[in-house]
Amino acid sequence: MNTTPLYRQLANHYLDAIRSGTLKTGERFPSIRLMMEKHAVSLSTAVQVCRELEDYGVLEARPRSGNYIRQPDKPQKTSPIALVQPLDTGVYVGIHEQVSSVLKASQRALIKVNFASAYCAPELYPLKTLQDNMVKSLRHDSCLYGVAGSTNGNSALRSLLARRALTTKANLTAERIVITNGATEAINLALRAVTQPGDTVAVESPTFYGLLQILESLNLRVLEVPASAHTGINLNALQLLLQGPEKIKAMIVIPNLQNPLGSIMPDANKARLVKLCAEHDTVLIEDDTYGDLVDTEQPLSTLKHWDRSDNVIYCASLNKTLAPGMRLGWISAGRWHERVEMLKHTQSRGCEALSQLAVSAFMKTPSYERYLRRLRKTLTQQRQQMSEAITRHFPIGTSVTHPQGGTLLWVELPRRHSSMAFFHEALKVGIQISPGDIFSNAKRFNHFVRIGCGAPYSPKIDEAVQTLGRILKNQG
Ligand SMILES: Cc1ncc(COP(=O)(O)O)c(C=O)c1O
């Protein structure tokens, strides 16, 4: 039985909320009446709770206005009951631990300039058009939120995606597309459809750390295949691995504007990769998150285009190209479609309808292509400016990739530099970068960093690049 008086238990409850930031300085504290109602306590208990919190220095009463959370100006009394320790976000092994520690350190820091993001700056996205489309959609169908959408997603959007895929020479059908919560959900679904825990899945090395996290969270074993910034995955190395003793159940490849390398696989390599995987009965999961951000007007071909045996699962996303906040992605799983549909249904049901309507209304107009054309030009320029600034400010011996699209640069530091030490030093002055260590389980990239160029180049960014250069020179 809990012998702590009720008012103290409640005071501790709110104290925890204040300490964890759920209730913030300056916010109004729940009224006495609300506390009596919600916690079924008497007037005197509710008043005592407030007194106790005032005593801790975290609550102030403002005449005729109520109680407000305040910053304590004296050391706080120790809580009579030990506060609940913040829950660990999970038990991580391998890359999870490293990625989580990097993400946590970044969350704790006061970030002034973020070079760790792969997104474009918000002002580069067509937000006004999308908002207008949302309003129109709601006006047109005021009952929209009263009905649950289909598991597969909006059929008009699926048709538009299938039609657009034709330009990348992939043949997708609207009936076999499932709209997902970003590429992340699409890849999760693909892996769950074709693997069992304990199976081995191959990835490029380096690769997007989010993929390594997904594999780990699904208890899959990871095999890393070397990749280059010029032509992507090394097919000879892959062939040797496929012929080796370990069965590779699936392989995830980012053929176009690979993250972090920025490589685009030549068509001949795409064709060979698809053939190799089919011959070895290895399911090929294509992650085409960045394809639409290529500099050229000519769309890039997809692996799906070369797929003759329905062995490629195509995953893509609008989160980099159109609207990160909408979290829209999609999957075309071919012969695994029914299984993916079932998994999506059991996992999360269909995606929210309004954003799909807003996107399809935009995508069916010529403005969409015009918007993408503009975005590509802007990114080309931003990457160019960033690349020149890095060359100017970073130490001699630094090398930078020159991707033909996208938002990312992969920077190799002179060997004596540790990217993790660089990451922590940069964070201290409010600059966030992605250390190479998190892009692989093998410790091969600990002198690389990934720099995002999604924001328009500005004096503030230039100053931040200069600061990064200074940090590196001091470290050297
Ligand atoms: C290669 C790659 N795949 C997948 C994702 C995740 O995409 P989404 O935000 O659509 O879930 C990212 C995000 O950075 C990525 O770079």
TrEMBL record:
InterPro entries: Aminotransferase_I/II_large, HTH_trans_reg/aminotransferase, PyrdxlP-dep_Trfase, PyrdxlP-dep_Trfase_major, PyrdxlP-dep_Trfase_small, Tscrpt_reg_HTH_GntR, WH-like_DNA-bd_sf, WH_DNA-bd_sf. Residues 4-72 form the HTH gntR-type domain. SMART domains: HTH_GNTR. Keywords: Aminotransferase, DNA-binding, Pyridoxal phosphate, Transcription, Transcription regulation, Transferase. The keyword Secreted does not apply. SUPFAM superfamilies: PLP-dependent transferases, Winged helix' DNA-binding domain. In the C-terminal section; belongs to the class-I pyridoxal-phosphate-dependent aminotransferase family. This is PLP-dependent aminotransferase family protein. It comes from Pseudomonas vancouverensis.
